[in-house]
Each structure stands twice: as structure tokens, then as C-alpha cells.
Amino acid sequence: MASQLHRLLPGELQAFATASDQTLIPSMLPASFWHIYIKMDFLRQYEYAETKNDGKSFVRNVARAAKAIETVISGSDGIVVEVQGSVIHCILVDPNCNSSLLRSHCRAINNALHLVFPDSSRVEGWRMAADWGKTLLVRGRGIHNDNSYVSLGNAANAPAKHLFAQLSLGSESERKLKRFVCAWRLGGGGAWMYDVLNRQVDEDFKDKAPSKFLEIRNRDFGLKSVAAKAAQGYVHIQNRAAPLSPQGAPNSADGEDPVVYYGWVMRADIDGFTARVEQCFDNDMKMLQLGERFEKIMEEAAVFASKHSEMLVQLPWAGDNFTAVVVFEDKSKYEEAIQGKLIEFGLDFASALNAVVVEADLGGWAQTAAGCKIHGNSQGNVYVGAVEFEGRRFLIGAGGGIGRSTQAFTDMDPRPAHIVVFEDDYDYLYRPYQERLMDRTKKDGSLSTLFRKGHLPDLAKAREKIQNALNKAKEPVKTLITAGGSGSVLVSSREYGED
């Protein structure tokens, strides 16, 4: 464990991020950074992709944006630390809170994105939020040997919180943080300031722009299925991790060649984590201890993901947010499984990860789950690609379930031991689960038409009821009926037991 927050030497951040032998370097890096979040505003058909082409386009353009951002900041001792769908989080080393450094880089990022996305055919624009302060950077741990970095500190939490608070407002006219604007502050809870970024590329930037921005814009992209990738013979499987090849393999998932799955997305947030980070803000040792505890949580989550009976793609951690895609090889197996296993998987996760968060003096897990109906002859509903930097790879997910599982947190604000389910998936569930997912109350008190919320202990009782019915029913008279809009009904010679 590092002993204290310190000034980084030139290149130390890159060494931390790209070391191939991670046993030789610490897993936590404490220092002062600028945190910049860039939200790419994709058209809804790409953000909530329902077709292979739209999913491919989303992954491709997220990879392009991340590549452009890394290109800008890497020359000033900065790196991308998270690629969470349409939100990209990067950091700049700065021990002195130099606002000129921040603002010049935000303008440069804006210029680069204008070069990469010269029109609004897929990306309508972008907005940024940034803050400065002490941060403990913790290397993420997952099941695919990929990269993610958890940033513990107010400076990492505040801009993300401000960004999503602005996005939750009903319209662009209500937002201070509009497209092509950067919200920033000087750390320590000061007032937010707003810089209007140039809507066109600065001529001097265009004249000096490296050719790599145009290369990023003009790259060609393709798409393959899991079966096609497996047939090439380069599939890498770790226990129950879905087949994703390691970085550098010929069929490795990347921005050029996403992998297509049938599946649903489960997200889980730790209650009380942000508050604990705030409490540690002025105490370096407490921050380091929290980092150690969070490392243990990540390790336990990786054990769960690698050993659970379902096959999973674990997407990178986003702060205290765990994200997994439960994947199936074909549409029929996915639709059969979602009836019961969508809820069962959430119950299994909460049960397996409860002890480790309690040990860390944190609350339980709030969850969302979304798969979305599969339209027409789609070859899948989840698209997993990646963006690669020097020695690092970040997995990127696209599809309706990715977008809806994120939106569910914003709309419904689930509490610990609750799960939010997307309406499309609710229609497929066994009726006992449906009966315990009746709460439609949104965070603002209105009723949602998209999501339903339930309490995990109640859903555990429903699970027991379903399993008892299956165990008691005789096979000749047991039938599984899926009726559109009414969910799957278990029909047997016995009635369900009482709660």
C-alpha cells in the first residue's frame, strides 16, 4: 500500500497504467488530478441500439471519441481511465490546480472531436464537466484481464454527479451544461463555472492537428458473431467468462470488430460508497484503507463473475458500479432464460457480495437489469467492442440493455436490496416475479412507463415459490406457458404455496 498522496514524476501515471507485470507496481496510485468527463450525445437509435448496424456504429464511434481524447491528453501526462458507453472519463496530472491547463485541454478535446465527428449524423454534440483534487486511483479487477481504474475522491465524483444531474433535466433549454460547454470548478466544493467551447475547429488547431485525428475518423469497421470468432480458434475463456480474446489476439474484441451476443445487462451500485469517499477526503490513511477495501470488493465480484453458472461479460467498473452482461448463444436460449434467471442472477449477486460490503462498513447493492426485446432477425441485442491504447484495453458495451440499465438508475433511484427491471423484460418474467415488481415510482414522484422496481427479499420469496412448484409438479402435467404481456405462467397439478 502506498504511504501517502504525493507528486507524480513525469511518466509515472503512464507507467502505472501500462505496466505488463502488475505484480511489480502498486495497485493504487495517490496524487492530485484534474478529472474530465466527456458525454457524447449520440442519436437515440445508437445509444439504445436495436440492430446490428446501430450497435456497431455506437461501439465504433465511442472508440473513435476515446482514441481522440487520449491522443490530446497523452502529451501532457494524462490518460483515459474509464470508457462507460457514451461517457469518457480522463485525468490530467496537476499538483497545483492550474485552471489554464484544464481549459486549454478541454478546448483541444473539443477541437479534436470536431475533426473526428464533422457532422451530426450520429453524434449531435458533447459536453464536459471537470474538477480538481486529491484522488486515489485504484486499478480495476475483472475477469477478462482488461483495464479499468476506480478514482476515489471528491474530484472524481463531483463532475460525474453534476453532469448526470444536468442530463436529468427535461430539455436542453433547462440545462446550464449544454452541448459544447464545459462545467468546471477548482475543487473543494466551489461554484461551477461554464466555458462555451468553440463550435468549430480553431484554425490554428486545424493547421497543427496531427494526421492521426483524420485517421481515427476514416477507419473502416466490421462486425463478427461470437460463433465466427470462435471458429477462428483464438477464443479465450476464463471459467465462466464469455469468449473474449485477450488484447492483441487476431480476433480480440475491439472498436473495429465488436462481438455480438444475446443477453441482458445487470448493474449494481454500492450504497454509501460516495459518502465514505467524502469522509476520507482530508485523511490520506482513511482513503488508502478505503482503497484496500474496495480492492477486496472487486476481487469478490470477479470471483462471482468467473464462477457463476451463467456465462458473463464483465464490463469495466465505473466507480462503485459493477456491470455484467449475461450472454447466451442463441435467441431461444436467451428468451427461455430471461423468464426466471434475470431475477435469479440479481439475487445471486446480492447474496454473494453482501458480506464483503458489510465488512467494509458500506450499505448493500442497488441493482438494475435490462435486456430489451429482440426485433426482427437481429443477430443479437448486446454488442461488445473495445478501445485499445498503449498497453490498455477498455471493453465497450452497446445495445438497448446497456442504455436502459443506466437510465433506470437515473429515473428510479433504487435503494439497497432493490432491483429495477425494464418493462420489455417484465413481460417475459414468471408471474410470481411480476407480482412483486409493481412499484413504478420515479425519483421525482411521478410514475414510470419504462421501469418497475421490486424488493429483493420479496423476489427471493417468489423464487422459492417457483422452485417449489417446479419440484412438486409432475413432468407430464407441468407446462410452461408464455403469454404476450402476461409473462410466463407455471401450470402444474398443484397451486403455488402461500408466502
Describe the structure.
- This protein is α+β, with helices and mostly antiparallel strands.
- It has helices at 12-18, 44-47, 52-73, 99-116, 154-167, 203-208, 211-218, 226-231, 273-279, 284-307, 331-359, 400-412, 423-426, 431-434, 456-472; strands spanning 28-42, 78-84, 87-93, 123-139, 149-152, 181-184, 193-196, 224-225, 259-270, 311-318, 321-328, 365-370, 382-389, 392-398, 418-422, 451-455, 479-483, 487-491.
- A hairpin with a 2-residue loop joins strand 10 (311-318) and strand 11.
- Helix 10 (284-307) packs antiparallel against helix 11 (331-359).
- It is globular and about 75 Å long.
Question: What descriptive keywords fit this protein?
Answer:
alpha+beta, nine-stranded mixed β-sheet, 15 helices
Estimate the mean pLDDT confidence: 83
Low-confidence stretches: 220-241, 245-255, 475-499
Number of strands: 18
Rounded to an integer in angstroms, the radius of gyration calculated over CA atoms is 23 Å
Shape estimate: globular
Summarize the structure in short.
The protein is α+β, with helices and mostly antiparallel strands and 499 residues long. It contains 15 helices and 18 strands.
Topology:
Blueprint: H1 12-18, E1 28-42, H2 44-47, H3 52-73, E2 78-84, E3 87-93, H4 99-116, E4 123-139, E5 149-152, H5 154-167, E6 181-184, E7 193-196, H6 203-208, H7 211-218, E8 224-225, H8 226-231, E9 259-270, H9 273-279, H10 284-307, E10 311-318, E11 321-328, H11 331-359, E12 365-370, E13 382-389, E14 392-398, H12 400-412, E15 418-422, H13 423-426, H14 431-434, E16 451-455, H15 456-472, E17 479-483, E18 487-491
Parallel strand pairs: 4-6, 8-9, 12-15
Antiparallel strand pairs: 1-3, 1-4, 2-3, 4-5, 6-7, 9-11, 9-12, 9-13, 10-11, 13-14, 15-16, 17-18
Helix pairs in contact: 3-4, 3-7, 4-7, 10-11, 11-15
